TrEMBL record:
Stated name of the protein: Glutathione S-transferase
Every GST C-terminal domain range: 94-216
Start and end residues of each GST N-terminal domain: 1-82
UniProt similarity note: Belongs to the GST superfamily.
CDD domains associated with the record: GST_N_4
């Protein structure tokens, strides 16, 4: 039975999971949750995930309620395309490599979330409804700093954590690729743009549903 993913088409965090599953050729049973009508806060969903957050993955009796945890789980328990041995190359059996990957997962969950992700939500979706101009200004400021950090790293390295693409790249990619939806331009960051192009060229890459133009 395929893992069941509770997801939303507009969520970048949900897209990360769908993207990795496609890169690894892992089938998913997808259950679409209406985020803007707060279906993720319904009693039925809260019984599954008391945090009321997306994505949520259910597989073999286990429940994972965080996108980074799901990425680690899928990359660690599945092989690469055309291979039979886990973990996939998007994860590592080496603890030092794991620490390097998790370092960037934390960056995605803090800097990217508070900056580029928040700016996109405010500008593109007017979410949250009570967001102020000051909130947007602060999010854009954080987003620019995030891009500066990434530009410095990617001017020297092809990939974020290791010498190959990993879930670190998958986790950071989406809100960077969609930065301009939050009125944060990518033009000043050539190394970042080259990195997003490399990710789009990976076998199994899929665009974000409904936002193909922004990702193209």
């Amino acid at each position: 039975m395929a893992p069941k993913l509770y997801t939303s088409k507009v969520s970048g965090n949900c897209y990360k999971v769908r993207l990795l599953a496609s890169l690894l050729n892992v089938p998913l049973e997808q259950v679409e949750i209406d985020f803007f009508n707060l279906q993720h806060r319904s009693p039925e969903f809260l019984a599954l995930n008391p945090r009321g957050e997306l994505p949520t993955l259910v597989d073999q009796g286990k429940i994972f309620n965080d996108s980074s945890a799901i990425l680690i789980y899928l990359a660690g328990t599945n092989p690469d395309r055309g291979s039979v041995a886990a973990p996939s190359s998007y994860w590592s059996a080496d603890v030092v490599d794991q620490a390097s990957i998790v370092d960037w997962l934390a960056f995605a969950g803090s800097w990217i979330h508070a900056g580029l992700s928040k700016a996109r939500a405010i500008v593109a979706f007017h979410w949250p409804p009570n967001a102020s101009e000051a909130d947007l200004t602060e999010a854009k400021k954080k987003g620019v700093k995030s891009l500066e950090i990434l530009e410095e790293r990617l001017a020297k390295e092809q990939w974020l954590a290791l010498s190959r693409p990993t879930i670190a790249d998958v986790a950071v990619f989406v809100y960077v690729a969609l930065a301009e939806m939050g009125n944060v331009p990518l033009a000043p960051y050539p190394a970042v743009r080259a990195w997003t192009d490399r990710i789009k060229g990976l076998p199994g890459f899929i665009p974000l549903d409904g936002l193909d133009k922004a990702l193209g």
